[in-house]
Write a structure and sequence with these properties.
alpha/beta; FAD/NAD(P)-binding domain; 7-stranded mixed sheet; 5-stranded parallel sheet
C-alpha cells in the first residue's frame, strides 16, 4: 500500500473511529490528541465508582452504524435502551411533551394549532427534499407552515435558547433534520422516544476504540498540541478537529455545561426543553431519569446546558458566578430545589461544540481533501443532518471510501 503512514489529529470519537477504520484497512496510524485524555466532546469524568459524560450523550433508535460498532467492539452487553419522558417549560409551567397525546393536550396552543403541529411533524418525517430548505430560514418556514402563534410559543424561544442572536438566520433544514431524527427514534405510532446508553458511560466506548487502535499496531500520543499541518514524517495527515473551521469561513458555537450533583429528584423528565429566554440555559437533562445506575449510590446528576459564542461576556464568568446564575434559573423552574441540596457541581466548557448552520451551507462544506498530504474529517462536514455519533461514523465511512 502506497502512502500508508497516516497521522490522525484529534482524539475525539471522530479521530478514534477514523484511526480504527484505517488500521483495519492496513494503514499505519498514529493518533495525536492535545488533551491528557481521549474522547473530545464525549470525554468523561469520575463519579463514585464509575464515570459520567462532561456533556450529555445518548444513542437514538436509528443509530444503526453506532450500534454495529458497539457490537463489533464487544460492548453489546453494556448497551441498553430506555424510554424516558420529555417535558416543555413555558411561561412558568412545565408540560409533558412525550407522546402524541401530550401534544393534543398542550395548553399553550389551541386545539386546531395542536392538530396542525402534529400533522406538520408527521409530514416532516416523510420529507426527503431538504435542498429546498437550504435558502429559507427556519423562522420563515415555520411561520408559513404553522402560523405565527405556534412559532412564537414553541419554536422561537427554543431557537433563541440554542442559537442566541443567530436564531432568526438559522436555515429551515436544521429544524427539518432535528424533527426527522427525533421522529425516527420513536417507537411505533410515535408513542415514546427510545434512547440508548452504555453502562459505564461513553468511556467504555472510548477505551474499547483505544484498545483496538493499539491492538492493531497503531500509536496514541496524548498531550500533543499541534499547530502546523501536514505533520512531517507522515505520508498524509487527517484533521478531525474543529479549530480549522475559520479557514473555510465557518463558525462554531461554544457550550457550557454545568452539572449539578444532588440526591433530590426534581421531576420525572429526562429532557426538559426551556421556552423561556430569561433562563440562562436551554435544556435540563436529568440523567438518572433515563440512565440510573447503582454505582451512583443514590446521587443524581442534572446537566444544565448553554450554547453561546466563546468570546461573549457570559463565557467569561467564573465557575462560581455560573453556578449562582444557573441556580437562580433552575429555581425559577423548580422552586423547591434549595442550595443546601447541592452536593457538588462541575463546569465544562467547549469552544467548538456546535457548527453554526447558515443559509446555503452545502456550498460551504469543506472537502475531505485539502491537498495531497492534508485531509479533513469533521462534524462541520455533516450535512444536512445535525452532528451525532451515527452521522459521524457515516461521514467517516464515506471519507475512507474516497481516501
Amino acid at each position: 500500500m502506497q502512502a500508508n503512514k497516516i497521522a490522525v489529529v484529534g482524539g475525539g470519537i471522530s479521530g478514534l473511529v477514523t484511526a480504527y477504520y484505517l488500521l483495519k484497512k492496513g494503514y499505519q496510524v498514529t493518533l495525536f490528541e492535545k488533551e491528557a485524555e481521549l474522547g473530545g466532546l464525549a470525554s468523561t469524568f469520575p463519579v463514585k465508582g464509575t464515570r459520567l459524560e462532561k456533556f450529555y450523550h445518548h444513542f437514538f433508535a436509528q443509530d444503526t452504524l453506532a450500534l454495529e460498532l458497539i457490537e463489533e467492539l464487544g460492548l453489546k452487553d453494556k448497551f441498553y435502551w430506555a424510554f424516558p419522558r420529555m417535558g416543555f417549560f413555558s411561561k412558568g409551567t412545565t408540560y409533558p411533551f412525550t407522546t402524541p397525546l401530550d401534544l393534543l393536550a398542550f395548553p399553550p396552543l389551541s386545539l386546531p394549532e395542536r392538530l396542525k403541529f402534529g400533522l406538520f411533524s408527521f409530514k416532516v418525517k416523510q420529507e426527503t427534499d431538504w435542498q429546498k430548505l437550504e435558502t429559507k430560514t427556519a423562522k420563515e418556514w415555520l411561520i408559513e407552515n404553522l402560523g405565527t402563534n405556534i412559532y412564537q410559543e414553541v419554536w422561537q424561544p427554543l431557537l433563541r435558547a440554542k442559537f442566541a442572536e443567530h436564531a432568526d438566520k438559522i436555515p429551515a433544514f436544521w429544524v427539518w433534520g432535528r424533527l426527522k431524527a427525533r421522529g425516527k427514534s420513536r417507537s411505533a405510532f410515535g408513542w415514546r422516544e427510545k434512547l440508548g446508553y452504555l453502562k459505564g458511560s461513553y468511556q467504555v466506548l472510548i477505551d474499547a476504540l483505544a484498545a483496538k487502535i493499539t491492538g492493531l499496531g497503531g500509536a496514541i500520543k496524548l498531550g500533543q498540541e499541534l499547530k502546523t499541518f501536514p505533520l512531517p514524517g507522515f505520508d498524509r495527515t487527517i484533521l478531525t478537529i474543529p479549530q480549522v473551521s475559520q479557514d473555510f469561513g465557518l463558525k462554531y458555537l461554544g457550550n457550557i455545561c454545568l452539572i449539578i450533583k444532588t440526591k433530590q429528584r426534581l421531576s420525572n423528565y429526562y429532557w426538559l426543553n426551556l421556552a423561556d429566554n430569561s433562563i440562562p440555559f436551554c435544556v435540563i437533562v436529568e440523567h438518572n431519569n433515563a440512565f440510573d445506575s447503582p454505582l451512583y449510590q443514590g446521587e443524581r446528576f442534572l446537566f444544565l446546558s448553554s450554547y453561546l459564542d466563546h468570546q461573549s461576556d457570559f463565557w467569561q464568568l467564573t465557575d462560581q458566578e455560573l453556578l449562582t446564575t444557573y441556580l437562580a434559573g433552575l429555581q425559577k423552574i423548580y422552586p423547591a430545589f434549595k442550595r443546601e441540596a447541592l452536593l457538588d457541581y462541575y463546569v465544562f466548557r467547549e469552544k467548538f461544540a456546535q457548527p453554526l448552520p447558515t443559509l446555503g451551507y452545502s456550498k460551504k462544506v469543506p472537502p475531505f481533501k485539502i491537498n495531497e498530504k492534508l485531509y479533513l474529517v469533521s462534524n462541520m462536514q455533516i450535512y444536512p443532518e445535525d452532528r451525532g455519533i451515527n452521522d459521524t461514523i457515516k461521514l467517516i465511512c464515506k471519507f475512507i471510501e474516497q481516501f
